[in-house]
Amino acid sequence: MAHEPQTILFMPESAYGPTNNCIGIGDLLRRRGHRVVFAAERSWAGKLEALGFVEDLVDLAPPPDASGADGGAEQDPGQFWKDFIRDTSPEFRKPTIEQLATFMQPTWQALIDGARYCEPQLREIIERHRPDVIVEDNVVAFPALVSSDAPFVRIVSCNPLEIRGPDIPPPYSGLPSDDRSDWDAFRDEYERTHRPTWEAFDDWVREQGAPGLPYLEFIHTSDVLNLYVYPEVVDYVERRPLDATWQRLDSSVRQTDGDAELPALITDRPPGSALIYLSLGSLGSADVGLMRRLVELLSRTPHRYIVSKGPQHAEYDLADNMWGGEFLPQTKLIQLVDLVITHGGNNTTTEALHFGKPMIVLPLFWDQYDNAQRVDETGFGIRLRTYAFANNELHGAIERLLASPIRGRLGDISREIRARDGVAKAADAVAAVGSRAGTASRR
């Protein structure tokens, strides 16, 4: 028997990764007849509606035209965080433990400030739409989302070290799983630099009528359904078992990306020329100096490259063995290539494994270090020092991975991941939460 249509409200973080993850799940729910509302950050205006969703957007800070200073210029999606990362990018050259005070804590504070600012807006949105289910893909709590009558679902689309445990490395550290020598020092420094921020936020969350937060964590866990995106083959679940509210999605690859018309440079490659995808994400690619260095080094190889140029696309040129653009349909292109060079964002990492591609990972911030380390220690790629690798390290990593038998194993892993259909699993689970809640309310 078909289930009744539901209203499902998604609240993703403004960055591309979480929003694209929600788009993939929401698109399937929409195609199944549900009404899908996005309470995304306002710079996504028009982009979500074009995909068939209802937009009811929020500001995370006073609108840029509040003073009339910029004439109300339209922002790009995720501009809030592009600007923030641009201003703090020098921090990416520091070891992760040194970033805790100067990058991580200010980033948490910026996220918290956004949550505080948009809390009244979210309460109004929930009142307008009366959702059957609320889904949050973010790293900070929004009290309105967990204190309404609708059941709350949490998605973790960062590396699952964010779901903490004593026998796994501390999140955001990039530390190895089998060497605990630096774990305690990192955790102690995290507590020293973050405890006052967490205490103030926890007090405010409680004042808004929401439950208190777990110690030193900035977001609630759902008591009905928690989803996280990470392939089983690289997961930590044996070291950190999870309760029955948690479900793993081996991948969550959206079907909303369009096709790209590839030039002959890419489709008619000479013998021995591999095809490689380069993307440092919308934020990492804003580092023009790093992108210029990569372009120059990769131009010396016999291979061809598809390059996601990002928001600073006009600030540098590609070499003769490259093709790309500001935005590319990543999920359509990764499946065509032999190797992926990435910043280690969770979407790109899981998509590369979904399509069975080895990776060279150049982490910049947040959970990218954890993904880089996990890819390296499980043998599915190579982690390089993003700002300190030698020229021959990059060239050598490319050739080793192209010649590695791991590519055959990744093909088998890809088939297993795709058969599990993470997007459908997530859509089924979210709709089931709404159905159970609706049944209970009718009793």
Share in helix: 40-55%
Mean of all residue-level pLDDT scores: 90
Q: In terms of structural class, how would the helical and strand content be classed?
A: alpha/beta
User: What is the number of beta strands?
Assistant: 13
| Strand order, sheet with most strands | 3-2-1-4-5-6-7
Radius of gyration: 21 Å
Q: What is the beta-strand fraction?
A: 5-15%
Can you walk me through this structure?
- The protein is α/β, with parallel strands linked by helices and 443 residues long.
- The protein is 41% helix and 12% strand.
- It is built from 14 helices and 13 strands.
- A seven-stranded parallel sheet has the order 3-2-1-4-5-6-7. Strands 10-9-8-11-12-13 form a six-stranded parallel sheet, with helices on both faces.
- Helix 1 links the parallel strand 1 and strand 2.
- Helix 1 packs across helix 14 and helix 3 runs parallel beside helix 5.
- The chain is globular.
- The protein starts with 6 loop residues before the first strand and ends with a helix.
- About 2% of the residues have low confidence.
Précis, in short:
The chain is α/β, with parallel strands linked by helices. It has helices at residues 16-31, 79-88, 96-129, 143-146, 183-207, 264-267, 281-284, 288-298, 330-333, 346-354, 368-377, 391-403, 406-420, 422-442, and strands spanning 7-12, 35-38, 54-55, 133-137, 152-156, 225-229, 246-249, 275-279, 304-308, 322-325, 339-342, 359-361, 381-383.
